[in-house]
Design a protein that fits this description.
alpha+beta, Dihydrolipoamide Transferase, OB fold (Dihydrolipoamide Acetyltransferase, E2P), Chloramphenicol Acetyltransferase, single chain, 406 residues, 7-stranded mixed beta sheet
């Protein structure tokens, strides 16, 4: 008896998804709970597991098609299914003492590459450069294409015209265009960013922080902290804790507008922006005010891993009362972050850079960081935004304040 494969519930307010990739193909044997297909929503990528063991007998929706929650994706029938191809190949090798075609070493990896599923980073590189996976020699496990394989193929392709050109001749300039369909996540990011600009009266205020004390504290306790808690003491936990102190003092920054009402939050769910290959996502550290430094670091590290692996859930991404974005990891010295609707404030961290500062009438070299807070001027006054940032500066420059709550 056949078992239906249906689109599962995708989370609050999400009713549609795109079939990103079939992990299994028609005729393949599948085990119960084994991933069959990836669905891409405007927030996360979801793997649909096999509801039963058997054979993937039918695929009813092609990759790239849109599907609604509850839609039929395919069916699983009874039977053993096809055996895995890579395991059967080595047994035939001893018979191949006879002459081998010159092209065989190139053809075998390429054929395996088309059969084996590609990781998201490789799929993106292949799509962006219009590469035929069958033309690339694969070096990964079980004949899988790696990012290095595709890059090497592109380098060889770029070098070929130069090698064949006649001496002294100039290659004709290439003018071309490439159209790549925006992913659902990228479309959603674009919509939300434009929504923030269209609806909020958005302003940004700046300040700078002397990171000397935090860097000294981290250097002093780095090894013992990691040994005891099993996680590194990073900068982000200090910024999360400092933001919470400032949010408690300036509650409007932790509020949001709903219709003609202002909703003040007495809890602190801090979103931490994470860059992935698919785009920017903002997983949320729940009740961050109740967590210690080690718990904040562990939570952020875990969410970061899930983001990079495409394993974030709707629960990880929904909610959030305030967001922190660290452009400094990419080398940004100063920026104006855009609000994450419906939140009313977002903090932008930046690169730590040594600069000459006047300290007690003397010039000293200090590790400085510019901070930026973008805010919705409809509910946050300029004085409140400035006070919020000054409060953060005080806590970061004297981190002992975070321990005694002053």
């Amino acid at each position: 008896m056949a078992t239906d494969i249906k689109v599962p519930a995708l989370g609050e307010s999400v009713t549609e998804a795109t079939v990103a990739r079939w992990i299994k193909q028609a005729g393949d044997a599948v085990a119960i709970d084994e991933p069959l297909v990836e669905l891409e929503t405007d927030k996360v990528t979801v793997e649909v597991p096999a509801p039963s063991a058997g054979v993937l007998s039918e695929i009813l929706v092609a990759e790239g098609d849109n599907v609604e929650v509850g839609a039929l994706l395919g069916r699983i029938g009874e039977g053993a299914g096809k055996a895995a191809a890579p395991a059967a190949k080595p047994a035939a090798a001893p018979k191949a003492e006879a002459p081998k075609p010159a092209a065989a070493p190139e053809a075998k990896p390429a054929a395996a590459a088309t059969a084996a599923p590609m990781p998201p980073s490789v799929r993106k590189l292949v799509a962006e450069n219009d590469v035929d996976p069958a033309a690339v020699a694969a070096s990964g496990k079980d004949g899988r294409l790696t990012k290095g394989d595709v890059l090497a193929h592109l380098e060889q392709k770029a070098a070929a015209p130069a090698a064949s050109a006649a001496p002294g001749s100039k290659p004709a300039p290439e003018r071309g265009e490439e159209r790549v369909r925006m992913s659902r996540l990228r479309q959603r990011i674009a919509e939300r960013l434009k929504q923030a600009q269209n609806t909020a009266a958005m302003l940004t205020t700046f300040n700078e922080v002397d990171m000397t004390e935090i860097m000294a504290l981290r250097a002093r306790y780095r090894d013992s902290f990691e040994k005891r808690h099993g996680v590194r003491l990073g900068f982000m936990s200090f910024f999360v804790k400092a933001a919470i102190q400032a949010l408690k003092e300036i509650p409007a920054v932790n509020a949001e507008i709903q219709g003609n009402e202002i909703v003040y939050k007495n809890y602190y769910d801090i979103g931490v922006a994470v860059g992935t290959e698919s785009g920017l996502v903002v997983p949320v550290v729940r009740d961050a005010d109740k967590l210690g430094f080690a718990e904040v670091e562990k939570t952020i590290n875990g969410l970061g891993r899930k983001a990079r692996d495409g394993k974030l859930t709707m629960e990880d991404l929904t909610g959030g009362t305030f967001t922190i974005s660290n452009g400094g990891v990419y080398g940004s010295l100063l920026s104006t972050p855009i609000l994450n609707p419906p939140q009313s404030g977002i903090l932008g961290m930046h690169k730590i850079q040594e600069r000459p500062m006047v300290i007690g009438g003397k010039i000293e070299v200090r590790p400085m960081m510019y901070l930026a807070v973008s805010y919705d001027h409809r509910i946050i006054d300029g004085s409140e935004a400035v006070t919020f940032l000054v409060r953060m500066k005080d806590c970061l420059e004297d981190p002992q304040r975070l321990l005694i709550d002053v």
